Amino acid sequence: MSEVRATDGVLADRFGRVATDLRVSLTDRCNLRCTYCMPAEGLAWLPREELLSDAEIVRLVRIAVERLGVTDVRFTGGEPLIRPGVVDIIGACAEMRPRPRMSVTTNGIGLERMAGALKTAGLDRVNVSLDTLDPERFKTLTRRDRHAAVIAGLEAAAAAGLVPVKVNSVLMRGVNDDEAPELVRFALAHGYELRFIEQMPLDAQHSWDRSKMVTADEILASLRASYTLLPDPVERGGAPAETWVVDGYTATDGGPARVGVIGSVTRPFCGDCDRTRLTADGQIRNCLFATDESDLRGALRGGATDEEIARRWQAAMWAKRAGHGIDNPTFLQPARPMSAIGG
Q: How far apart are the C-alpha atoms of 332 and 343, rounded to whole Å?
Protein backbone atom coordinates (compact mmCIF):
# COMPACT_ATOMS: atom_id res chain seq x y z
CA MET A 1 0.00 0.00 0.00
CA SER A 2 1.12 3.59 -0.52
CA GLU A 3 2.39 5.43 2.51
CA VAL A 4 -0.35 6.92 4.67
CA ARG A 5 0.45 10.21 6.35
CA ALA A 6 -0.86 11.67 9.58
CA THR A 7 -2.49 14.47 7.58
CA ASP A 8 -4.52 12.35 5.15
CA GLY A 9 -7.86 12.69 6.94
CA VAL A 10 -7.53 9.32 8.65
CA LEU A 11 -6.16 8.00 11.94
CA ALA A 12 -2.91 6.55 10.64
CA ASP A 13 0.26 5.49 12.44
CA ARG A 14 3.90 5.21 11.38
CA PHE A 15 3.49 1.52 10.53
CA GLY A 16 0.80 1.97 7.90
CA ARG A 17 -2.14 0.97 10.08
CA VAL A 18 -5.32 3.02 9.89
CA ALA A 19 -7.80 3.09 12.78
CA THR A 20 -11.42 2.79 11.65
CA ASP A 21 -12.83 1.20 14.83
CA LEU A 22 -13.50 3.55 17.77
CA ARG A 23 -14.09 2.20 21.28
CA VAL A 24 -15.88 4.76 23.46
CA SER A 25 -16.00 4.25 27.22
CA LEU A 26 -19.18 5.80 28.59
CA THR A 27 -18.31 5.28 32.26
CA ASP A 28 -15.68 3.67 34.47
CA ARG A 29 -18.39 2.44 36.86
CA CYS A 30 -19.70 -1.10 36.90
CA ASN A 31 -22.43 -3.01 38.73
CA LEU A 32 -20.36 -6.22 38.97
CA ARG A 33 -17.09 -6.85 40.80
CA CYS A 34 -15.44 -9.52 38.64
CA THR A 35 -12.44 -10.98 40.42
CA TYR A 36 -10.13 -10.60 37.41
CA CYS A 37 -11.06 -6.94 36.94
CA MET A 38 -11.44 -5.14 40.28
CA PRO A 39 -11.40 -5.69 44.04
CA ALA A 40 -14.54 -6.56 46.00
CA GLU A 41 -14.88 -3.04 47.35
CA GLY A 42 -14.73 -1.54 43.87
CA LEU A 43 -12.54 1.35 42.80
CA ALA A 44 -12.35 5.10 43.27
CA TRP A 45 -14.63 6.24 40.45
CA LEU A 46 -13.83 9.24 38.30
CA PRO A 47 -15.41 12.47 39.60
CA ARG A 48 -18.55 13.37 37.65
CA GLU A 49 -17.11 16.67 36.45
CA GLU A 50 -14.20 14.86 34.79
CA LEU A 51 -16.48 12.68 32.68
CA LEU A 52 -17.39 13.78 29.18
CA SER A 53 -20.96 15.00 28.86
CA ASP A 54 -23.33 13.33 26.40
CA ALA A 55 -22.89 16.24 24.00
CA GLU A 56 -19.09 16.05 24.25
CA ILE A 57 -19.13 12.33 23.49
CA VAL A 58 -21.35 12.86 20.46
CA ARG A 59 -19.14 15.68 19.19
CA LEU A 60 -16.01 13.55 19.42
CA VAL A 61 -17.67 10.60 17.72
CA ARG A 62 -18.84 12.97 14.96
CA ILE A 63 -15.29 14.24 14.44
CA ALA A 64 -14.03 10.66 14.24
CA VAL A 65 -16.73 9.60 11.77
CA GLU A 66 -16.99 12.69 9.57
CA ARG A 67 -13.37 13.86 9.55
CA LEU A 68 -11.20 10.87 10.40
CA GLY A 69 -12.71 7.89 8.62
CA VAL A 70 -14.07 5.90 11.57
CA THR A 71 -16.71 3.40 10.40
CA ASP A 72 -17.38 1.35 13.56
CA VAL A 73 -18.17 2.63 17.04
CA ARG A 74 -18.39 0.37 20.07
CA PHE A 75 -19.63 1.74 23.39
CA THR A 76 -17.97 0.20 26.43
CA GLY A 77 -17.32 0.85 30.11
CA GLY A 78 -17.16 0.05 32.91
CA GLU A 79 -20.72 -0.99 32.25
CA PRO A 80 -22.10 1.29 29.52
CA LEU A 81 -25.77 0.52 30.18
CA ILE A 82 -25.62 2.28 33.55
CA ARG A 83 -24.86 5.58 31.77
CA PRO A 84 -28.19 7.48 31.91
CA GLY A 85 -27.76 8.98 28.43
CA VAL A 86 -26.66 5.85 26.56
CA VAL A 87 -29.81 5.58 24.42
CA ASP A 88 -29.71 9.27 23.47
CA ILE A 89 -25.99 9.07 22.63
CA ILE A 90 -26.60 6.12 20.32
CA GLY A 91 -29.56 7.88 18.74
CA ALA A 92 -27.47 10.98 17.99
CA CYS A 93 -24.66 8.90 16.49
CA ALA A 94 -27.13 7.00 14.31
CA GLU A 95 -28.01 10.30 12.60
CA MET A 96 -24.43 10.90 11.48
CA ARG A 97 -23.54 10.63 7.80
CA PRO A 98 -21.89 8.40 6.95
CA ARG A 99 -23.70 6.37 9.60
CA PRO A 100 -21.28 4.30 11.69
CA ARG A 101 -21.95 0.69 12.60
CA MET A 102 -22.60 0.65 16.33
CA SER A 103 -22.32 -1.98 19.04
CA VAL A 104 -22.20 -2.19 22.82
CA THR A 105 -20.05 -4.39 25.03
CA THR A 106 -22.02 -5.06 28.22
CA ASN A 107 -22.26 -7.43 31.15
CA GLY A 108 -25.90 -7.92 30.18
CA ILE A 109 -27.47 -6.58 33.36
CA GLY A 110 -30.23 -4.20 32.33
CA LEU A 111 -30.22 -5.44 28.76
CA GLU A 112 -33.56 -7.20 29.16
CA ARG A 113 -35.16 -3.84 29.95
CA MET A 114 -33.20 -1.74 27.43
CA ALA A 115 -32.74 -3.94 24.35
CA GLY A 116 -35.76 -2.60 22.51
CA ALA A 117 -34.89 1.05 23.14
CA LEU A 118 -31.28 0.49 22.10
CA LYS A 119 -32.39 -1.11 18.83
CA THR A 120 -34.87 1.68 18.13
CA ALA A 121 -32.15 4.28 18.80
CA GLY A 122 -29.96 2.70 16.14
CA LEU A 123 -27.73 0.16 17.88
CA ASP A 124 -26.77 -2.69 15.55
CA ARG A 125 -25.60 -5.43 17.89
CA VAL A 126 -24.23 -6.35 21.32
CA ASN A 127 -21.35 -8.25 22.90
CA VAL A 128 -22.33 -9.73 26.27
CA SER A 129 -19.79 -10.97 28.81
CA LEU A 130 -20.61 -14.37 30.30
CA ASP A 131 -17.84 -16.49 31.81
CA THR A 132 -19.87 -19.35 33.27
CA LEU A 133 -23.21 -21.12 32.94
CA ASP A 134 -23.24 -22.03 36.64
CA PRO A 135 -25.16 -19.45 38.72
CA GLU A 136 -23.16 -20.22 41.87
CA ARG A 137 -19.87 -19.95 40.03
CA PHE A 138 -21.10 -16.70 38.48
CA LYS A 139 -21.79 -15.35 41.96
CA THR A 140 -18.26 -16.26 43.04
CA LEU A 141 -16.66 -14.73 39.94
CA THR A 142 -18.64 -11.49 39.89
CA ARG A 143 -19.48 -11.15 43.60
CA ARG A 144 -23.08 -10.55 42.54
CA ASP A 145 -26.07 -12.91 42.19
CA ARG A 146 -27.13 -11.71 38.71
CA HIS A 147 -26.65 -14.73 36.45
CA ALA A 148 -30.35 -14.92 35.54
CA ALA A 149 -30.33 -11.25 34.53
CA VAL A 150 -27.50 -11.84 32.07
CA ILE A 151 -29.26 -14.83 30.49
CA ALA A 152 -32.46 -12.78 30.19
CA GLY A 153 -30.48 -9.93 28.64
CA LEU A 154 -29.06 -12.21 25.97
CA GLU A 155 -32.53 -13.45 25.08
CA ALA A 156 -33.91 -9.91 24.92
CA ALA A 157 -31.07 -8.75 22.67
CA ALA A 158 -31.75 -11.55 20.20
CA ALA A 159 -35.49 -10.88 20.28
CA ALA A 160 -34.90 -7.16 19.62
CA GLY A 161 -32.75 -7.91 16.58
CA LEU A 162 -29.40 -6.83 18.05
CA VAL A 163 -27.68 -9.53 16.03
CA PRO A 164 -25.40 -11.27 15.79
CA VAL A 165 -25.44 -11.51 19.57
CA LYS A 166 -21.86 -12.21 20.60
CA VAL A 167 -20.86 -13.74 23.93
CA ASN A 168 -17.43 -12.99 25.43
CA SER A 169 -15.95 -15.52 27.86
CA VAL A 170 -12.70 -15.37 29.81
CA LEU A 171 -11.44 -18.74 31.03
CA MET A 172 -9.35 -18.89 34.21
CA ARG A 173 -7.27 -21.83 35.28
CA GLY A 174 -8.86 -23.80 38.08
CA VAL A 175 -11.91 -21.55 38.06
CA ASN A 176 -13.97 -22.08 34.91
CA ASP A 177 -11.53 -23.61 32.40
CA ASP A 178 -13.62 -26.79 32.34
CA GLU A 179 -16.57 -24.97 30.76
CA ALA A 180 -15.32 -24.26 27.23
CA PRO A 181 -17.27 -27.05 25.45
CA GLU A 182 -20.40 -26.35 27.50
CA LEU A 183 -20.26 -22.64 26.70
CA VAL A 184 -20.00 -23.47 23.00
CA ARG A 185 -22.97 -25.83 23.30
CA PHE A 186 -25.01 -23.07 24.94
CA ALA A 187 -24.10 -20.53 22.25
CA LEU A 188 -24.86 -22.93 19.41
CA ALA A 189 -28.24 -23.82 20.90
CA HIS A 190 -29.28 -20.15 21.10
CA GLY A 191 -27.68 -18.83 17.93
CA TYR A 192 -25.09 -16.70 19.72
CA GLU A 193 -21.50 -16.25 18.49
CA LEU A 194 -19.04 -17.18 21.22
CA ARG A 195 -15.64 -15.53 21.64
CA PHE A 196 -13.12 -16.80 24.17
CA ILE A 197 -10.69 -14.11 25.35
CA GLU A 198 -7.32 -14.73 26.95
CA GLN A 199 -7.10 -13.06 30.34
CA MET A 200 -5.05 -9.88 29.93
CA PRO A 201 -2.87 -7.86 32.33
CA LEU A 202 -5.46 -5.15 32.87
CA ASP A 203 -6.74 -5.88 36.38
CA ALA A 204 -6.89 -3.12 38.98
CA GLN A 205 -5.03 -5.28 41.47
CA HIS A 206 -2.06 -5.79 39.09
CA SER A 207 -2.06 -9.46 40.11
CA TRP A 208 -2.20 -10.94 36.58
CA ASP A 209 -0.05 -14.07 36.33
CA ARG A 210 0.71 -15.42 32.88
CA SER A 211 1.13 -18.95 34.23
CA LYS A 212 -2.49 -18.92 35.40
CA MET A 213 -3.84 -17.69 32.08
CA VAL A 214 -5.63 -20.22 29.87
CA THR A 215 -4.00 -19.80 26.47
CA ALA A 216 -5.60 -19.80 23.03
CA ASP A 217 -3.94 -23.13 22.24
CA GLU A 218 -5.38 -24.68 25.40
CA ILE A 219 -8.85 -23.34 24.60
CA LEU A 220 -8.71 -24.75 21.08
CA ALA A 221 -7.50 -28.14 22.33
CA SER A 222 -10.45 -28.27 24.72
CA LEU A 223 -12.91 -27.38 21.97
CA ARG A 224 -11.47 -29.87 19.48
CA ALA A 225 -12.05 -32.66 21.97
CA SER A 226 -15.79 -32.07 21.52
CA TYR A 227 -16.18 -30.38 18.12
CA THR A 228 -14.67 -30.43 14.64
CA LEU A 229 -13.36 -26.96 13.87
CA LEU A 230 -12.80 -26.02 10.24
CA PRO A 231 -10.89 -23.03 8.87
CA ASP A 232 -13.15 -20.01 8.48
CA PRO A 233 -13.32 -18.97 4.80
CA VAL A 234 -14.13 -15.39 5.82
CA GLU A 235 -11.02 -13.22 6.00
CA ARG A 236 -10.18 -12.01 9.48
CA GLY A 237 -9.04 -8.53 8.46
CA GLY A 238 -8.51 -6.35 11.52
CA ALA A 239 -10.87 -8.36 13.73
CA PRO A 240 -9.34 -9.38 17.07
CA ALA A 241 -10.83 -12.88 17.00
CA GLU A 242 -9.54 -15.83 15.01
CA THR A 243 -12.65 -17.75 14.04
CA TRP A 244 -13.46 -21.31 13.09
CA VAL A 245 -16.53 -22.94 11.60
CA VAL A 246 -18.10 -25.52 13.91
CA ASP A 247 -18.72 -28.44 11.59
CA GLY A 248 -22.29 -29.75 11.53
CA TYR A 249 -23.90 -26.67 13.09
CA THR A 250 -25.85 -23.82 11.51
CA ALA A 251 -26.16 -20.22 12.66
CA THR A 252 -29.54 -18.51 13.01
CA ASP A 253 -29.05 -16.75 9.64
CA GLY A 254 -28.66 -20.11 7.91
CA GLY A 255 -24.92 -19.81 7.51
CA PRO A 256 -22.25 -21.85 9.29
CA ALA A 257 -21.93 -21.56 13.06
CA ARG A 258 -18.67 -20.05 14.25
CA VAL A 259 -16.58 -19.84 17.39
CA GLY A 260 -13.70 -17.44 17.97
CA VAL A 261 -10.64 -17.03 20.15
CA ILE A 262 -9.05 -13.68 20.95
CA GLY A 263 -5.46 -14.52 21.84
CA SER A 264 -4.33 -11.01 22.74
CA VAL A 265 -1.38 -12.30 24.76
CA THR A 266 -0.10 -15.42 23.02
CA ARG A 267 -1.34 -14.72 19.47
CA PRO A 268 -1.20 -10.92 19.23
CA PHE A 269 -2.75 -9.20 16.23
CA CYS A 270 -1.03 -5.84 16.68
CA GLY A 271 0.10 -5.72 13.06
CA ASP A 272 -3.51 -5.50 11.87
CA CYS A 273 -4.91 -3.40 14.71
CA ASP A 274 -7.50 -0.88 13.52
CA ARG A 275 -8.67 0.51 16.87
CA THR A 276 -8.56 3.82 18.69
CA ARG A 277 -9.93 4.33 22.20
CA LEU A 278 -11.64 7.22 23.94
CA THR A 279 -11.91 7.02 27.73
CA ALA A 280 -14.89 8.29 29.70
CA ASP A 281 -12.86 11.32 30.78
CA GLY A 282 -11.87 12.28 27.25
CA GLN A 283 -8.42 10.75 26.84
CA ILE A 284 -7.27 9.10 23.61
CA ARG A 285 -5.43 5.79 23.96
CA ASN A 286 -3.80 4.50 20.80
CA CYS A 287 -3.39 1.01 22.29
CA LEU A 288 -5.23 -0.95 24.96
CA PHE A 289 -1.89 -1.39 26.74
CA ALA A 290 -0.61 2.17 26.25
CA THR A 291 1.06 3.78 29.24
CA ASP A 292 0.30 7.32 28.10
CA GLU A 293 -2.76 9.17 26.83
CA SER A 294 -3.64 12.27 24.83
CA ASP A 295 -6.13 14.74 26.27
CA LEU A 296 -9.10 15.76 24.12
CA ARG A 297 -11.33 16.88 26.99
CA GLY A 298 -9.12 19.86 27.69
CA ALA A 299 -9.22 20.86 24.05
CA LEU A 300 -13.00 20.50 23.93
CA ARG A 301 -13.55 22.62 26.99
CA GLY A 302 -10.89 25.09 25.95
CA GLY A 303 -12.74 26.08 22.80
CA ALA A 304 -10.80 24.08 20.20
CA THR A 305 -12.35 23.73 16.76
CA ASP A 306 -13.26 20.36 15.27
CA GLU A 307 -10.25 20.64 12.97
CA GLU A 308 -7.90 21.28 15.90
CA ILE A 309 -9.31 18.30 17.80
CA ALA A 310 -8.96 16.11 14.71
CA ARG A 311 -5.30 17.07 14.40
CA ARG A 312 -4.68 16.24 18.08
CA TRP A 313 -6.31 12.85 17.55
CA GLN A 314 -4.17 12.19 14.48
CA ALA A 315 -1.01 13.09 16.38
CA ALA A 316 -1.97 10.67 19.16
CA MET A 317 -2.46 7.81 16.70
CA TRP A 318 0.70 8.59 14.74
CA ALA A 319 2.70 7.85 17.90
CA LYS A 320 1.27 4.31 18.27
CA ARG A 321 3.84 1.60 18.92
CA ALA A 322 4.32 -1.42 16.67
CA GLY A 323 2.94 -3.78 19.32
CA HIS A 324 1.80 -4.07 22.92
CA GLY A 325 5.07 -5.66 24.07
CA ILE A 326 3.64 -8.03 26.68
CA ASP A 327 6.46 -10.48 25.96
CA ASN A 328 9.09 -7.78 26.38
CA PRO A 329 10.89 -7.86 29.75
CA THR A 330 10.36 -4.09 30.00
CA PHE A 331 6.55 -4.38 29.64
CA LEU A 332 4.65 -2.28 32.16
CA GLN A 333 0.97 -2.89 32.88
CA PRO A 334 -1.09 0.27 32.27
CA ALA A 335 -1.90 2.20 35.43
CA ARG A 336 -5.57 2.26 34.47
CA PRO A 337 -7.48 -1.02 34.75
CA MET A 338 -9.77 -2.30 32.00
CA SER A 339 -12.85 -0.80 33.68
CA ALA A 340 -11.33 2.68 33.35
CA ILE A 341 -9.91 2.20 29.85
CA GLY A 342 -12.89 0.67 28.08
CA GLY A 343 -12.76 -2.67 26.26
A: 18
Q: Are 34 and 170 in contact (CB under 8 A)?
A: no
For residue 301, the SS3 value is helix
How does pLDDT run across 172-194, given as a tens digit for each residue? 999 999 999 999 999 999 999 99
- Nearest 10 degrees: CA dihedral of 322, 326, 327, 332? 110
The residue among 209 and 48 whose pLDDT is bigger is 48
Q: Which residues pair with 126 in a beta bridge?
A: 104
Residue 232 main-chain phi, psi, to 5 deg: -80, 125
Average pLDDT taken over every residue of the chain: 91
Domain span at 186:
11-341
Q: Treating both helix axes as pointing N-terminal to C-terminal, what angle do 111-121 and 86-94 enclose, rounded to 10 degrees? A: 20
**What is the mean predicted confidence (pLDDT) over 15-22?**
97
Averaged over 331-341, what is the pLDDT? 65
Find the CATH number of the domain harbouring 171.
3.20.20.70
Residue 133 counted as domain residue: yes
84, exposed or middle or buried, with CB in 10 Å at 0-12, 13-18, 19+? exposed
Those residues with Cβ within 8 angstroms of residue 26's Cβ, 6 or more apart along the chain or in another chain? 57, 75, 76, 77, 78, 80, 83, 86, 89, 280
Q: State how far the Cα of 333 lies from the Cα of 205, in Å rounded to an integer.
A: 11
Cα atoms in the 13 Å half-sphere on the side-chain side of 201: 20
